[in-house]
Design a protein that fits this description.
Oligomer: single chain
Helix content: 25-40%
Number of strands: 6
Shape: globular
Strand content: 25-35%
Number of helices: 4
Distance between the termini: 16 Å
Structural class: alpha/beta
């Protein structure tokens, strides 16, 4: 188990966000972090009908940055992408069986810490599918060579 975790951690820490439109903005940073979390515990993504992103606890994105993120994810994963909270997803009926089982994944950017130099950031991001299927990770990224690169990835919670 330890070896598998170490291999997984090493592999994820080497990932780079290579979108051709990547830049040193919040949208580039958020996309890199969201991509890292989506690829973590990919079993939670199985048969997902949508991705919802909850930005409520983060520095504000412009409407165009938010739309850029949503369009990128919609194109890559071929699912609907929303900017809805858990409560809003429930009101929309976007769950299956009981309310704790979503038909898609909810990504929450819980915390953002930007370094003074603006070329490094640490984010806490969670991915929720159900009470028995969720993960929270702390991701440190650095902006190098026009790309946000994950340099550290620590799982904080997994169920």
């Amino acid at each position: 188990m330890y070896l598998l975790s170490l291999v997984s951690l090493t592999t994820s820490c080497a990932s780079t966000f290579t979108n051709t439109e990547a830049d040193n903005s919040l949208s580039g940073l958020y996309l890199a972090a969201l991509e890292e979390v989506i690829s973590t515990d990919s079993a939670l993504n199985r048969s997902m009908e949508y991705i919802s992103i909850d930005y409520d606890r983060t520095p504000a994105l412009s409407d165009s940055d938010g739309q850029h993120i949503m369009k990128f994810l919609r194109t890559k994963y071929k699912v609907d992408v929303y900017n809805l909270t858990y409560e809003q997803l429930l009101k929309q009926g976007l769950y299956e069986g009981n309310e704790s089982n979503l038909r898609g994944i909810l990504l929450r950017i819980e915390k953002v810490e930007l370094a003074d130099e603006q070329n490094e950031a640490t984010l806490v991001v969670s991915k929720y599918r159900s009470n028995e299927g969720s993960i929270a990770v702390k991701i440190t990224l650095q902006y190098r060579d026009n790309n946000w690169m994950v340099v550290d990835h620590v799982t904080l919670k997994e169920s």
